[in-house]
Write a structure and sequence with these properties.
InterPro entries: DUF4956. The chain is 57% helix and 14% strand. It has seven helices and three strands. A three-stranded antiparallel β-sheet has the order 1-3-2.
């Protein structure tokens, strides 16, 4: 009976920790409901495996180590839609399941380590941390051989370029794909610059179009 209460306490701690990670930190910031079942199922499943292997191996040892290695080796993140910050949440759910699933680890010690992990994730993924730094993939309908001209074009469209990598150049279709890290201008500044550029060219339109999937991250 004592072992059952001990396991229930660890399970309650695990559910509380992963619930805070998923519903209090991840979902309010990223709004991807489809990953919530993945995080919860992965965490609870790993907790169950750790608890079962510990029970079989008693104090852990070889059975626990080999079992965990087998479980973790089959986990793959194959979806291209999963971003780097979401991978961090995946690993956090794994670690929480491991910490809370080890019965021989004291409950207070597991709670303290879980709190540290949650605090780090909360701060590291906070929207106020370097708030205007962004990353995006841009397709331009012009090929700039001069880096200064490319920088000016990116600045006119996005903000202050911090770093960029040319991913693709197509001379047949006269386009280039650029992976850009940039800092957003304050609200209204970019609009004013775009309007001034259009007025200067006398066309009222930009010389190219920007398309592509935007992936924001802190840089």
């Amino acid at each position: 009976m004592e072992s059952v209460r001990h396991l229930a306490a660890h399970l309650g701690l695990d559910l509380l920790a992963v619930g805070l990670l998923t519903f209090a930190i991840y979902h309010p910031r990223h709004r991807r409901r489809d990953l919530i079942p993945a995080y919860l199922a992965l965490n609870v499943a790993l907790f169950a495996v750790v608890a079962a292997l510990t029970e079989v191996g008693k104090s852990g040892g070889t059975a626990l180590g080999l079992g965990l290695f087998g479980v973790l080796s089959i986990i793959r993140l194959r979806s291209d839609a999963v971003q780097h910050e979401e991978v961090a949440y995946y690993f956090s759910t794994l670690v929480l399941g491991l910490l809370c699933g080890l019965p021989n680890l004291g409950l207070a010690y597991a709670a303290a380590l879980s709190a540290v992990l949650l605090a780090v994730v909360y701060v590291a993924d906070h929207p106020r941390l370097i708030p205007r730094s962004r990353r995006t993939l841009v397709t331009l309908d012009a090929v700039h051989a001069d880096p200064a001209a490319l920088r000016a074009d990116l600045a006119r469209r996005l903000g202050e370029p911090l770093h960029w990598t040319v991913m693709e150049i197509d001379y047949v279709r006269d386009l280039m794909v650029v992976d850009v890290r940039y800092r957003e201008f304050p609200p209204g500044v970019l609009v004013e610059q775009q309007a001034a550029g259009a007025l200067h060219r006398g066309t009222g339109t930009s010389t190219g179009t920007s398309t592509g999937t935007h992936t924001w991250e802190t840089v």
